[in-house]
């Protein structure tokens, strides 16, 4: 089979040069690369269609095509939206150009896919357009839905219009709704994503009758990076008792690793740490974020909201006298990240992620695979990673409760047995449940069931080649450029009704 992946945001390159360095370069890239490679290893032809960026700041995204050397998955870069890098919220008006570029590529190369997987709302709407023109079936994988982000970025009456515009929410929700409706399959990482995230009031009306098209495909971890060596166990056993050390370097580290997006709520974790003197006396906090060369003096490359978050973090460190207890680290690859996790695990470290909402959280399962007990947000998919029947594989916390976060961390820091228990549970859970091979098996099975009738598609291909009118996308172009008033009102009414309901 030939399978196409649609990821219009760009940012793929064979060396994974900038993962998490910018807030747009996150888990979606990891997910798509790992899944594409796993499908390729199963013998399929796989192409990732993304954006060509000709920008001196990101020289790795210029070439028309590139191949991942170990697997042969092809990255195809389509020029659209001009040359310069654009943050994802600004890409919407150019998506019709992206789709036209892909069709041109198919016509020129004859490399027509048998199935298309689409990612995030922008990939999803591109899939809707491609499907309308060519009839090729597609799946939608949301990664993160706009509605949960809207709930968490603090939509208030006074800031409503500004936030709607800054995050292009009306266009994003419109695109997501169409992608959900038209896709042959919706891949979700957890059952919770289907039963809660997709049931949000801004989408719920789409799913009353027809919800058979959801397929749960949990993602995986790359085991060649994220693993735990048993010798580390020895080190843990040998380390001195952790009772109030005189040297801070001897203390365990609590590590938080994510993109610097305000919804990851790194500032919430700092607040929790600041609120608990005993925790400060027993552990250090290590913040792994990329993008700010030196957080103490330069973060000009970040998006406005990320700059604000970084400023908030630095102000808190100052205000609560946390210097010397909180450190920043920049890790330039997943290999380095994994090695850092293992080192911290050898000294009874803990991973903590306090996102206001986390649809799934690859970072959580990766940390577990390296032997770190995890304390993570209870908002989102974490439940399904960490709980099954009465068994617990990590600790869930309310990300807005400093007390819950700090007490849960302290509970593990203070109690060697508890640390060992979650360490072992985490390793077991990832081994048994989260592998990219099994994600690829699920995609393969579902894709095989949804292939288009070959004869029908031949005719469609012929038509797209010869008849340019079939590539008329003006009805999408208009609302991708200027969000529909109806959609803005739909969103506004939802929040007004909800507020009234609350009262
Ligand atoms: O220095 C670092 C720090 C992190 N990472 C990687 O960045 C990824 C982050 O992914 P994730 O923790 O899943 O967060 P997001 O970037 O927010 O990803 C979105 O998409 C993911 C895939 O669908 C979902 O799991 C998330 O919940 C969703 O928010 C992980 O693989 C990390 O290994 C690095 O490569 N280097
Ligand atoms: O915060 P948002 O817009 O919901 O986006 C999360 C998404 O952002 C990205 O980091 C970049 O698109 C993706 O990896 C992830 O799926």
UniProtKB/TrEMBL annotation:
<feature type="domain" description="Glycosyl transferase family 1">
    <location>
        <begin position="245"/>
        <end position="428"/>
    </location>
</feature>
<dbReference type="Pfam" id="PF00534">
    <property type="entry name" value="Glycos_transf_1"/>
</dbReference>
<dbReference type="Pfam" id="PF00862">
    <property type="entry name" value="GT-B_Sucrose_synth"/>
</dbReference>
<dbReference type="InterPro" id="IPR001296">
    <property type="entry name" value="Glyco_trans_1"/>
</dbReference>
<dbReference type="InterPro" id="IPR000368">
    <property type="entry name" value="Sucrose_synth_GT-B1"/>
</dbReference>
<dbReference type="InterPro" id="IPR044161">
    <property type="entry name" value="SPS"/>
</dbReference>
<protein>
    <recommendedName>
        <fullName>sucrose-phosphate synthase</fullName>
        <ecNumber>2.4.1.14</ecNumber>
    </recommendedName>
</protein>
<feature type="domain" description="Sucrose synthase first GT-B">
    <location>
        <begin position="3"/>
        <end position="195"/>
    </location>
</feature>
<dbReference type="GO" id="GO:0046524">
    <property type="term" value="F:sucrose-phosphate synthase activity"/>
</dbReference>
<keyword id="KW-0328">Glycosyltransferase</keyword>
<keyword id="KW-0808">Transferase</keyword>
<comment type="similarity">
    <text>Belongs to the glycosyltransferase 1 family.</text>
</comment>
């Amino acid at each position: 089979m030939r399978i196409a992946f649609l990821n219009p945001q760009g940012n793929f390159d064979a060396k994974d040069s900038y993962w998490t360095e910018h807030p747009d370069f996150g888990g979606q890239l990891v997910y798509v690369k790992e899944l594409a490679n796993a499908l390729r290893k199963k013998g399929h032809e796989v192409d990732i269609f993304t954006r060509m960026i000709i920008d001196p700041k990101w020289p790795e995204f210029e070439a028309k095509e590139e191949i991942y050397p170990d697997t042969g998955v092809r990255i195809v870069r389509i020029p659209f939206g001009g040359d310069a890098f654009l943050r994802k919220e600004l890409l919407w008006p150019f998506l019709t150009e992206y789709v036209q570029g892909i069709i041109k590529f198919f016509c020129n190369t004859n490399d027509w896919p048998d199935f298309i997987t689409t990612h995030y709302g922008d990939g999803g709407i591109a899939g809707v357009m491609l499907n309308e023109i060519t009839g090729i079936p597609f799946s939608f994988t949301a990664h993160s839905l706009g509605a949960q982000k809207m709930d968490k970025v603090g939509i208030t009456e006074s800031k409503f219009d500004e936030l709607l515009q800054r995050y292009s929410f009306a266009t994003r929700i419109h695109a997501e709704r169409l992608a959900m409706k038209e896709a042959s399959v919706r891949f979700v990482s957890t059952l919770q994503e289907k039963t809660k995230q997709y049931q949000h009031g801004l989408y719920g009306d789409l799913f009353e009758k027809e919800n058979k098209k959801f397929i749960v495909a949990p993602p995986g971890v790359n085991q060649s990076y994220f693993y735990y060596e048993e010798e580390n166990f020895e080190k843990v056993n040998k380390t001195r008792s952790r009772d109030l050390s005189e040297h801070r370097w001897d203390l365990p580290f609590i590590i938080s690793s994510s993109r610097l997006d305000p919804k990851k709520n790194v500032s919430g974790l700092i607040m929790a740490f600041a609120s608990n003197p005993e925790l400060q006396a027993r552990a250090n906090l290590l913040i792994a974020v990329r993008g700010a060369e030196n957080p103490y003096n330069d973060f000009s490359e970040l998006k406005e909201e990320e700059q604000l978050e970084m400023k908030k973090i630095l102000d808190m460190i100052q205000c609560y006298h946390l210097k010397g207890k909180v450190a920043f680290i920049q890790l330039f690859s997943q290999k380095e990240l994994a090695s850092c996790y293992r080192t911290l695990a050898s000294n009874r470290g803990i991973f903590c992620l306090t996102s206001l909402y986390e649809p799934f959280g690859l970072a959580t399962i990766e940390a577990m695979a390296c032997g770190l007990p995890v304390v993570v947000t209870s908002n989102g998919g974490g439940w399904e990673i960490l709980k099954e029947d009465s068994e617990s594989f990590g600790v869930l916390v309310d990300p807005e409760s400093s007390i819950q976060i700090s007490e849960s961390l302290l509970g593990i820091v203070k109690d060697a047995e508890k640390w060992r228990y979650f360490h072992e549970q985490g390793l077991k859970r990832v081994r048994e449940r989260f592998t990219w091979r099994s994600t690829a098996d699920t995609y393969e099975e579902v894709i095989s069931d949804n292939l288009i009738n070959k004869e029908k598609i031949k005719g469609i291909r012929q038509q797209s080649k010869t008849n340019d009118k079939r590539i008329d996308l003006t009805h999408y172009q208009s609302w991708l450029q200027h969000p529909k008033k109806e959609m803005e009102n739909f969103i506004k009414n939802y929040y007004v009704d909800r507020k009234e309901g609350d009262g």
